[in-house]
Amino acid sequence: KLILDTLDSQSTIKDTRELTIPGESSPATSHESQITILGALNSLLSRDMITYETHEIFSYALTAEGSQIAKEGSHEARVWSALPLKGQGKPVTPVELKKQVGDETAKVGQGRAFKNGWIAKEADGLVKVADTIKDATKLELSEIESTGDLKAGEKVLADLRKRKLVVQRKGQWFTVHKGISFSTSTAKPETDLTADMLTSGAWKTSPFKKYNFDAEGIPPSGGALHPLLKVREEIRTIFLEMGFAEMPTASFVESAFWCFDSLFVPQQHPARELQDTFYISDPPASLTPPKAYYERVSTVHEKGGYGSTGHRAPWSDEESKKLLLRTHTTASSAQMLYKLAARCRGEDIDDDSNEFTHGARPTTSHGDADMEDDGFRPAKLFSIDRVFRNETMDATHLAEFHQVEGVVADRGLTLADLIGFMRVFFKKMGLEQVRFKPAYNPYTEPSLEIFAFHPYLQKWVEIGNSGMFRPEMLEPMGFPKDVRVHGWGIGLERPTMIRYGMTNIRALLGHKVSIENVENSPAVMF
Ligand code: PHE
User: Where is the Aminoacyl-transfer RNA synthetases class-II family profile domain (predicted)?
Assistant: First the structure.
């Protein structure tokens, strides 16, 4: 208020040391007063009500020893006063002097008093030879104590600092100007957008406090890194060291087209039913997928093609455009593979802009460098993110969990490449005992279920699913016939449970996790 009112009448404040803080008797010259003013300036600055410039000054303050000297006199003066004037009394022996003024003062003071010509030796003791003295050190220190400075100048100050009687203090003062939102009103701007402001419309006109991006924030009162995050980071590191690039997986909501149709999952497949998938009712339909691709996908479903008979069941646009919570991250992989095949479809793609492919030169499984460039570039991609399934929850199932997914695209890959790759990968994860079992999966053929031995449950548990993506999925995207893509997906939760010796998934994730326990534990424990 003081700053705003002063600005209102004077338009600038040249020197904030001239302000007098309400309730104080003298102007704000002290360091502490300027700190108080600075707090107010920053708060006004954040509301654009003022601008200010900072000026630095140095001031001087006494140390504990310095204050004692300012009060009681210098060591040499104290020595001098303890002695009788020459010829007027019994000289004081060094031992007696120590007793009277103390060891330190006697030691330091004697030398200086001699040097100043204040005292002399007589017989086996000491006497005064000057009948009056000027205690310069005391006078200098008193001046510094009251004004923060010394008229005698730098050299004397430097000497006093060397003697550890004085310290230098950096001080600040400020010049203040009106800001673009200057007003004399001290009404505080809003710090929160509330539901009331939204309903009343007050948010349109309310002044809001600017974000302070330098604020340190409130330190958390407890908590520790969650095991899922730790294992996720480990898995991500393994992928990265094996040369994989991470896919974007930000969209939890996908269309049935990308989640199922593009993968050649029949529209009548049970996985797509309400009891397995969470559908979204609003908005009612997805955006339209790329037109030509959409046609090829619907045709391969309904009538077949690329050597396949198709599903021979009627195709529904409505079914394809349904929105849902993605049931697997393969919905993202499908979109990345479609993007990877862009050049094979003859679309103009800038090599450098496609960060997911490996190298600009075409490769073949036979190292045939002369082969014509059909646009294909091999790729190794991975993702780790959340998926949703309408499951009955029990000790090993949740409706919301994380999938780890890896996809490799190259010419002439085989099932042996897939198995070999997974063995290396799981070994790096510490899962030495893994087994693969033939399985059915609508978008891969052949398909393999992945099992790992759970040391606590003492049995084999299914951890994932893998396979070679079907030509009915890859060829409509535009991949050449010799390009093979293998993929696998595992849950993040089960390997984490095996790692941490847990038997109940509900202790790891979901509404049954004890928040109190997490907050109070220095480390996550189960
Ligand atoms: N999407 C499969 C699942 O949800 C995992 C998978 C990914 C299988 C890629 C094959 C290829 O279990």
Answer: 378-522
Nearest CA to ligand 1 atom 5: 489
Q: Locate the ligand 1 atom nearest the alpha carbon of residue 447 and give its number.
A: 10
Kind and range of the H or E element at 34? Answer: helix 31-46
457 DSSP assignment:
T
CA distances from 104 to 58, 73, 119 (A): 31, 14, 18
CATH node for 233-516: 3.30.930.10
Q: Is 286 in the pocket of ligand 1 (CB under 6 A)?
A: no
> 96-127: per-residue pLDDT in tens?
999 999 998 998 899 999 999 999 998 889 99
DSSP H helices in 201-329: 227-241, 256-259, 291-302, 317-320
**Atom in ligand 1 nearest the alpha carbon of residue 333:** 9
**β-bridge mates for residue 407, sequence order:** 381, 487
Instruction: Provide the sign of the torsion angle of the four alpha carbons 241, 244, 245, 247, taken in this order.
Output: negative
Q: Say what the ipTM of the complex is.
A: 0.93
Average pLDDT value for the chain: 89
| Distance between CA atoms of residues 249 and 287, nearest Å | 18
| Beta bridge mates, 18 | none
The token pair that represents 301 in the structure block? 């479903």
Whether the CB of 473 sits within 6 Å of ligand 1: no
Say if residue 366's pLDDT is above 60.
no
Mean pLDDT within 272-288: 92
Q: Measured from the CA of 467, which atom of ligand 1 is nearest? A: 10
- Taking the centre of ligand 1 as the mean of its atom positions, its distance from the CA of residue 466, in whole angstroms, is 6
pTM of the model: 0.61
Distance (Å) from CA 464 to ligand 1 centroid: 7
Ligand 1 pocket residue status of 467, Cβ below 6 Å:
yes
Q: 279 pairs with which residues across the strands?
A: 324
Predicted confidence (pLDDT) per residue in 156-176, tens digit: 999 999 989 999 888 899 999
Nearest to 373 by CA among 343, 408, 413: 343
Q: Where are the domains of the chain?
A: 1-74+135-217, 81-133, 233-516
The two three-digit tokens of residue 291, written as one number: 């037109």
Best probe residue, ligand 1, of 407, 465, 488 (max atoms within 8 Å of C-beta): 465
Task: Return the biggest CA–CA distance within the chain.
Answer: 132
Q: Is the CB of 382 under 6 A from ligand 1?
A: no
Which protein residue's CA is at the shortest distance from atom 10 of ligand 1?
Answer: 466
> Does position 331 have pLDDT exceeding 70, yes or no?
yes
Question: In terms of DSSP bridges, do strands 245-246 and 379-388 run parallel, antiparallel, or are they unpaired?
Answer: parallel
Atom of ligand 1 nearest to the CA of 486: 11
Instruction: Please report, for residues 314, 519, 526, the alpha-carbon distance to residue 221 in angstroms, rounded to integers and kept in the order given.
Output: 58, 7, 20
